[in-house]
From TrEMBL:
One of its GO terms (molecular function) is glutathione transferase activity. Keywords: Transferase. This is Glutathione S-transferase family protein. SUPFAM superfamilies: GST C-terminal domain-like (SSF47616), Thioredoxin-like (SSF52833). Residues 163-287 form the GST C-terminal domain.
């Protein structure tokens, strides 16, 4: 891992822990929107998405690109699974899509093109604008909102995954799921003290219990329709038994031990085109090989065996 300081790459070991050994996630830097009449108007063929198939935050944006049928309008690069000394790269490998826009070998070159003296972390996802030659946004929560509506006038697939009538409910679920689960798995896995680890794992499983109870009563997190909140949960849960349970020590229970959550995960996985966005090979190799301070042998476990194709019972559709 590493970071940029004044436009130059510097290797490090995954950020600075807090005083109690807690993992601290830094703020993202590029926060613009795509909207008519702005510096970044909606246009087919203008924007490019950089993702890693391993990363749950980038995975959200890949899913929204698919849900909204934007493959023909927004081009894609996929990094190599290994995040090594130089950070994310486009070294050849199975599933890697090289950077045809900027010709970068490493993602940090893309950040340096946007801001030559950039200081900060070099993360995926990145939404790039070919015309201005810069980064529009590198915050997944915002990129999925952009993809959800910005291209609707240009022929994106209909469907609002963040409908006004459900926003309060979606925001409330997102807040808890982000703090204790999406980011909670990292707080557990990157903790540098026993106390920091336990402080992360206990609320994480309280949230899983709370979600299980909710999904036993209703098909989706905010009621009868699937929403953004379900997709934000999905990208963490699809990685749960394969990496967070072992590599990040989130092991009080497995996802498959929660019948409703496991059914919900499979239902989303089986929704139109979503399984093609899931690459457990990239996911497992990335985590087990990229964090040598967590897994010094870099051995990638063979299991678990997961039957993701066992039929899920929920009919995934946004609010009509
Ligand atoms: N807030 C960002 C977080 C993205 C993020 O942390 N991505 C990780 C991969 S899972 C990354 O690229 N980390 C590299 C680093 O921190 O150096 C988002 O949600 O878009």
């Amino acid at each position: 891992m590493g970071r940029m300081v004044d436009g130059a790459w510097q290797a490090d070991e995954g950020g600075t822990p807090g005083p109690g050994g807690q993992f601290q996630r830094p703020e993202t830097r590029f926060r613009d929107r795509i909207a008519p009449g702005t510096r970044f108007p909606p246009e087919a063929g203008r924007y490019h998405l950089y993702v890693s198939l391993a990363c749950p935050w980038a995975h959200r944006t890949l899913i929204f690109r698919r849900l909204k049928g934007l493959e023909g309008m927004i081009s894609l690069s996929v990094t190599h699974w290994l995040m090594g000394e130089q950070g994310w790269s486009f070294e050849p490998g199975e599933g890697v899509i090289p950077d045809a826009v900027n010709g970068a070998r490493h993602l940090h070159e893309v950040y340096a093109k946007a801001v030559p003296r950039y200081s900060g972390r070099v993360t995926v996802p990145v939404l790039w604008d070919r015309q201005e030659g810069t980064i529009v946004n590198n915050e997944s929560a915002e990129i999925i909102r952009i993809l959800n509506t910005a291209f609707d006038g240009l022929g994106a697939k209909p469907g609002d995954w963040y409908p006004p009538s459900l926003r309060d409910r979606i925001d409330a679920v997102n807040e808890r799921v982000y703090a204790t689960l999406n980011n909670g798995v990292y707080r557990a896995g990157f903790a540098r003290s026993q106390a920091a680890y336990e402080e992360a794992v206990r609320p994480l499983f309280e949230t899983l219990d709370w979600l299980e109870e909710r999904l036993a009563r209703q098909p989706f997190l905010c009621g009868e329709a699937a929403t953004e909140a379900d997709w934000r949960l999905f990208t963490t849960l699809i990685r749960f038994d394969a990496v967070y349970h072992g590599h990040f020590k989130c092991n009080l229970r497995r996802l498959v031990d929660y019948p409703a959550l496991w059914d919900h995960t499979r239902s989303l996985y089986q929704h139109d085109g979503v399984r093609e966005t899931v690459d457990l090979g990239h996911i497992k190799r990335h985590y087990y090989m990229s964090h040598p301070w967590v897994n010094p042998s870099r051995i990638v476990p063979l299991g678990p065996i997961l039957d993701l194709d066992a039929p899920g019972s929920r009919r995934v559709a946004p609010l009509a």
